[in-house]
Specification:
By secondary structure, the chain is α/β, with parallel strands linked by helices. The chain is built from nine helices and nine strands. Strand 4, helix 4 and strand 5 form a beta-alpha-beta unit.
């Protein structure tokens, strides 16, 4: 049987082994073999788009406080792990372009208004770098994705439906994505089911599994027929794909 294409996406880079959302983690993900890099975007007090997951600095850097309350220069002085600095979106774009991999850019923001502003800035930055057509914009916020689509209707978008706790029916999950104008949805592998995968297929939505790392978990979602897998361990994903019988 012909092998089905699976988008191999590195969740915050090879983040199980290297500091998440750093150039070090992204470089090693590329070396391990991926199709796309997943990264999170916040905005500094002076409007620089920086690659970091949380709205605050404590968990992933040696800094404190909210990102939006610090200038880029202040954040750049921090240690994001192993001496790495918090990168900018532009720096990751340069890395992706050189390696010819795609980007999966998650729009963050501490507030809904902030998320909308970040969505606008991300679309503009990707367009300026001529990489929008090789990127997918993702968010838990339907409004952020709709804002991105409003600016550039051809942008590919992926919704993380909420809540991801098993309380939504497969149809409710897909309806959220459709209302957000999304092409695709991402769902936690722990609660992903064949019924959800089948509903996505019937609805015409691509489905990415978030974020299986163990071989058994990766095999489980592959059997569901997902189109993409967002993992913290790209090397493990590649090993499973090489051995898995479709």
């Amino acid at each position: 049987m012909e092998r089905k294409p699976i988008v191999r996406c590195a969740h915050r880079g090879a983040s199980a082994e290297y500091p998440e959302n750093t150039l070090l983690a992204f470089r090693h993900a590329i070396e391990q073999g991926v199709d796309a890099l997943e990264l999170d975007i916040h905005r500094t007090a002076d409007d620089e788009l920086v690659v970091i997951h949380d709205s605050s600095l404590e968990r992933t850097t040696n800094g404190t406080g909210q990102i939006r309350d610090h200038t880029f220069h202040e954040i750049r002085l921090l240690d994001a792990g192993r001496g790495e600095k918090v990168p900018t979106l532009k720096e990751v774009i340069e890395l992706a372009c050189a390696a010819q991999v795609r980007l999966c850019v998650e729009i963050k923001g501490a507030t809904e208004i902030e998320g909308l502003a970040i969505a606008e800035a991300v679309v503009q930055t990707l367009e300026d770098a001529d990489i929008l057509s090789h990127s997918i914009l993702t968010s838990f916020s339907p409004q952020a994705l709709l804002r991105a689509k409003g600016i550039q209707p051809v942008a590919s978008t992926m919704l993380d439906p909420s809540p991801q706790d098993g309380s939504l029916t497969p149809r409710q999950i897909c309806v959220q994505a459709l209302r957000a104008g999304a092409n695709c949805l991402s769902y936690d592998f722990h609660i992903l089911t064949q019924e959800i995968a089948s509903e996505c297929q019937l609805t015409g939505l691509a489905l990415w599994a978030w974020a299986p790392d163990e071989p058994a978990d990766i095999q489980k979602v592959l059997k569901f027929g997902v189109q993409g897998i967002v993992t913290n361990m790209p090397a493990v994903l590649n090993k499973v794909l090489n051995e898995f019988t479709f």
